[in-house]
């Protein structure tokens, strides 16, 4: 019995150490058939029972799931993007994908099987995933050519189901290049939108895609996050591999840690407000992507460096308050106060807070040896 328990524990650890990818049959009452879907569960899903993940729904999932998963895994490894929950709908039969995306040649709206497929995603598949998994409110949909044009129809709804749209070389239904900009102008909630073409793309599609870009580029309202790419030297198919990371980095730009360029060209040049900048960065992340996370330790260190470089020592008080909120049991809050008093040459109080930090939990490069040495140094300075 003990041996079986150990084997089970080992398998559970191995299973949750990697993204869990499974293919299953989803029974749809709307479609009156079973549909193959692939679910990719983030590798951390089993470790943090409170964490929620953005949802990415992939049309043409049979061939888009691997490039999207690869781009997300790579970027998450470097902490440039969050982990994302992927649901990929297989449409590997040519007739199936065209039937799924059937639209009226007169209205450009879903009809027949296309209408059923549209409802299947909105009223069956997404609600099922939200009910059974920990999904954050931020939802993305992506597709290629026929499916890319079709996914835009969700933007025609009064309250669009998805927050972000990746339309790769879309084959646009009638009048969509004119209607979509008008519709997006009327939407009140924030919308992220990416689309792409290439010089090797189908010319008829390329012309309409560029016209759509003209209309979308004129939208200046707050809350519309937009990017268009026209790749050189790429084909209708190869542009997909160029576009996927561009789209994802566009959507998740606010998630990235403070970069060296951001530090040198923006933060250090500020006269004050370094801690406010850090707080606002993470508040924007939560508001725009519905992702709540502790402030990264490296981002604390970047703000610490900016304060030191500009001798804005009083801001260490604010930074300590912020550190206490995110890392209350760690040395970080007391360390910031100690550093503030040391730089202001109040060595007695600096020693006090270095001793306080000594009694807290180490974090990053802050440890007990360092705090002891600093407290002894402050004692000698008095």
UniProtKB/TrEMBL annotation:
Coiled coil: none annotated. Keywords: Kinase, Signal, Transferase. The keyword Zinc-finger does not apply. It comes from the Bacteria. Residues 1-19 form the signal peptide. GO terms for molecular function: kinase activity. Pfam families: Esterase (PF00756). InterPro entries: AB_hydrolase_fold, Esterase-like, Mycobacterial_A85_antigen, TPR-like_helical_dom_sf. PANTHER family: ENTEROCHELIN ESTERASE-RELATED, FERRI-BACILLIBACTIN ESTERASE BESA. This is Histidine kinase. The lineage of its organism: Bacteria, Pseudomonadati, Bacteroidota, Flavobacteriia, Flavobacteriales.
